[in-house]
Amino acid sequence: MITIASLKIGQKGIIKEFSLDAVPLKLLEMGCLPGNEVRLVQIAPFKDPLYLDINGSHLAIRLETARKIEIELL
Amino acid sequence: MAKHINVALLGNPNTGKTSVFNRLTGLNQKVGNYPGITVEKKQGTCKFGRACTVHILDLPGTYSLNASSLDENVVIELLLNKNDKDFPDVAVVVADVENLKRNLLLFTQIKDLGIPTILAINMADRMDRKAITLDVPLLEKKLNTKIALISSRKNTGFDYLKKLIENYNQLPTKPCLNASNIAPEYFDRLRKAFPNQDLYKLWLVITQDVNFGKLNRNELKGIATFQTESASNLKRMQQRETIVRYQYINETLKETLHIDTANAKDLRSRLDRVLTHKVWGYVIFFGILLLIFQAIFDWSEYPMDFIDRSFASLGEWTKNTLPAGEFTNLIAEGIIPGIGGIVIFIPQIAFLFLFISILEETGYMSRVVFLMDKLMRRFGLSGKSVVPLVAGTACAIPAIMATRNIENWKERLITILVTPFTTCAARLPVYLIIIALVIPDTRILGIFSLQALTLMFMYILGFGAAIFSAWILDKILKIKTKSFFVVEMPNYKLPLPKNVLITVVEKTKAFVIGAGKIILAISIILWVLASYGPGKFNDAETIVKTEFASQNLSPEELEHHIDSFKLEHSYIGRIGHAIEPAVRPLGYDWKIGIALVSSFAAREVFVGTLATIYSVGSDDEQTIKSRMAAEVNPVLGGPLFNFASGISLLLFYAFAMQCMSTLAIVRKETNSWKWPMWQLGVMTAIAYVLSLAAYQFLK
Fold first, then answer.
1. Where does the chain cross the membrane (chain B) (predicted)?
2. pLDDT digit string, tens, across residues B21-51
3. Helix (H, G, I), strand (E, B) or coil at B532
4. CA B116, CA B84: separation in Å to the nearest integer?
5. Alpha helix (H) residue ranges in B221-363
């Protein structure tokens, strides 16, 4: 499964339908929605968390959450 | 006719909501707490002309009305309770023009509650630079609202915003979204069950796990029992709501907002590349830490000395000016030094919050959280625990206040519990004098002073104890909180001096008033205990005079002996003797016992107490030191302060929870006596055991 965790720095993807149970509501509210474009801006040292740009909304999430969000690579 | 308008200021974090609040109210604001919880309640007033008073409530920043923290609960509880005295006549939602899409989510939710809502689009001055164009009239029409383009940085657009607030009753209240779209079938059932209710409000009452105790019971009757849906189904519907709202927002913005991405120059990515770099990121963070330490230890020394001297001379002056008597003594020896003991912390706290608020305002703090999260998580802490742990080296009180932005309760609680282990400024004078007494003034390899190394070791010990106990607590605390971590990485901004200033003033005030009351009370109690005593205490003068009659003492020396005798026979002296059996195995005598007890008010009292006990009569370090060096162990003979008892004392001060004010603030932040008492017990037990072991091994 290709997820946000599979992105390389600078690479983009489109968020696919994801299991709504795995992802907290707060993340949806911050713009992490199916159909939105996500770009990996930066990975923290020690490979976690990930710094994302989701349709202009900049946020950092932990790897465990990123692994649950499926994407389609652009 | 005098008009009174209640305004609620809402918005996502990082939209400059507080700057808007500061602009609207000036310094005309009041910070308190919501009853029973530690969420800050910021309110202020401003006058629109003579006839119109506006009361503005700055609600905590939130991304939506789906509450997931105490701060957010406050928002939804207020907006659902028409009977609350702060219930807004009009809501002002502050949005950042660069994050309009996300900011509109909250806006549409509030609008759908039927509250007249104004959209204040902040940072409008950046539109040109970011090549953003916005069709305001069209957006107003689509959102059924009035929009004020403002800039709190440039102070533009506020007159128009005020005019909109004043004429709030002309605002359309039509909702943005038909709530039934969320889940048509379910909402249909709701409508049938509660025909007279606003569906969206009902929906929020059903889905939100917040305290609705203040709501009108009649209005709500039956809702709690209307649980025909499982929790996971409700969650699914909430997610559906978010998606539906975003669809609506995307639709609305498609025609009104244009961002020319090609033109958007990116300061952010360039700064990010350096500040979150795997080497430079840490180097820069470390440099900033050094700067903060420098300010707290070095620069604040001057104002602190000044405060110390001023209060000493104020006490002296009071004693000489007011008519002699018990009351004067209480003021001069109890209350004035007590207040001085509070005020002396102001420089450090002000410096600390100056730095913290600048780091937050600029957006740098989010990068630190990003850098440190993985490291801290190994110990049950969060990236957001870094700030409190750093702040703890000045004083645990502001540090514990700084834990508030950790959303995860378990991570926050662990941070609060372990922060007092970090070496605070009040331990420093104690460490310095003991190290000077018991650690030989030699150099290792001819370069490193052994005394300096010991001091550094004490700092490392403090940090180590904090991190290690966090790791233990993570294992033993059974708190089920949904662990979730998301940090917004805001744009870099220059801090607004006014915002920084207001934060520094507010936090300092909160400390002085909050913790100050307790420090003052304890100082008065200590004074009373040291100034009165049973039996022999009252005949001190005669007894001492007879005892030393043969020695030709100067009146001053005699005075010191009297003071010393009085202290030994005062109530606190009795306490010291009473606890001596408990502290003797650690290598202390009753005098150190008293110093330990009085250190409970504030650790640095240790030196002052010993000064009084040893009747040195001055706080001059050199004299106390030589006097301490001459103390003889009453049981074993030999110097009382030797290597063994010195190390034992150092360890005791490193681990024991001896700070009344910290306990008070932990009580305030955790809203229960359980945790501060837990801290007091466990930390003091650790200190006791380690000191005991050290003394018994080394003696």
1. 279-297, 335-359, 379-401, 413-440, 452-473, 510-530, 636-656, 677-698
2. 999 988 778 877 676 665 778 899 888 877 8
3. coil
4. 17
5. 231-256, 267-275, 280-293, 301-321, 326-329, 336-343, 346-362
Statement to judge: residues B653 and B579 lie in one domain: yes
Check residue B349 and report its DSSP letter: H
The residue-averaged pLDDT of B278-290 equals 90
Query: In which band, very low, low, confident or very high, does the pLDDT at B566 lie, cut at 50, 70 and 90?
Result: confident
pLDDT per residue as tens digits for the range B635-664? 777 788 889 999 999 999 999 998 887 888
Quick check: A62 and B482 CB within 8 A?
no
The alpha-helical segments, DSSP class H, found in B402-539 are 409-418, 428-438, 450-476, 497-531
Asked whether the ipTM of the predicted complex exceeds the cut of 0.85, the reply is yes
A20 and chain B in contact, CB less than 8 A: yes
Residue that finishes a domain, picked among B441, B476, B511: B476
Q: Is B478 annotated as a binding residue?
A: no
CB spacing of A59 vs B269 below 8 angstroms: no
B278 marked ligand binding residue: no
User: Which residue, A50, A46, A47, is CA-closest to A62?
Assistant: A50
Amino acid sitting at position A67: R
Which among A21, A31, A62 is the nearest to B485, CB-wise? Answer: A62
Mean pLDDT value of segment B389-410: 81
Give every CB contact of residue B511 below 8 A, 6+ residues apart in sequence.
B345, B346, B349, B397, B398, B401
Q: What pLDDT band is residue B87 in, cutting at 50, 70 and 90? A: very high
Domains annotated on chain A, with CATH: 4-73 (2.30.30.90)
